[in-house]
Amino acid sequence: MTHPRQQTDAVGFVDLHAHLLPGVDDGPATLEESVAMLAMAHRGGTRAMAATPHMFSPHWLNEDVLAIRDAYARLVESLGRLGEYAEHAFLPELTLHLGAENYVSEEFLCALRAGRVLPLGEGRWLLVELPPELPLAAALGAVDQVLDAGFLPLVAHVERVRGVRRDPSGAAALVERGARLQVNVQSLDGWRYALPRRTVDALLEGGLVSVVASDAHDCAGRPPTLERAWERLARTFSPADARRWLHANAAAMLQPESPAQGTPSSLEPTADIT
Confidence class of residue 53 from pLDDT cuts 50, 70 and 90? Predict the structure, then answer.
């Protein structure tokens, strides 16, 4: 589902992980804050975003898919009205999709088996958050359950998983099992969680990352900006790699014709997945 007046051919960054729905988690508290985040993202070159509220997390009691859909519908309706005004003329240039950041818990696994989960956009990808201390065997088991339910897992900020931080071969095991991996913009600089930048670089250099996203929560501490990631990735790796990580792979994952319905092994993390 997209904003009714959005352009479908906009070219720019695609942000698959952002907390944009007002008042549902630790993202924006108000509509005004959501709009400010969207304005910042647009100024930085982002043209499509997935609203991914926390779900099934012990910190946020969001387990009702219908309630999240309603919150998203209210936001889209409000953005449609605001987009008619000159000061918010940028809004029709942004495509907004719905998804969720699904915390791997018993509640999530039960909802998964019942089909009560929110994939990213119109595709079959689920953004999955692994608890930081989850053993690799349990993480691989969660990947299997997502696959068995007919979805494909995109692991959110995989660099936070301590097993991966200690040994990047854990990330390779997740990819071999059928998952794809997302890293956060802030982690490119080792900004949060005392994460050495070389760890994220090792994941990127090893071809283990499919998507770089903002994991935005606000306009200050965790902003929805991807342009500095583009500058660093295009310089350190190549513009072609940066485009895959910040646009092509994410755009494909949102589409119903995504290879998510095919075999996971056919998807190359560092290549266009279309």
Answer: very high
- Angle, CA 250 vertex, CA 244 and CA 252 arms, to 5°: 95
φ/ψ of residue 226, rounded to 5:
-110, -10
Signed CA dihedral, 101, 106, 107, 109: sign only: positive
CA gap 241, 256 in Å, rounded: 24
Q: 30-51: string of b/e by CB count within 10 Å (b at 16+)?
A: ebebbbbbbbbbbebebbbbbb
Q: What is the pTM of this model?
A: 0.89
183/269: higher pLDDT: 183
Is 28 in contact with 34 (CB distance < 8 Å)?
Answer: yes
Sole residue written with tokens 């029709």: 92
pLDDT tens profile 6-31: 333 335 999 999 999 999 999 999 99
Alpha-carbon span 97 to 94, nearest angstrom = 10
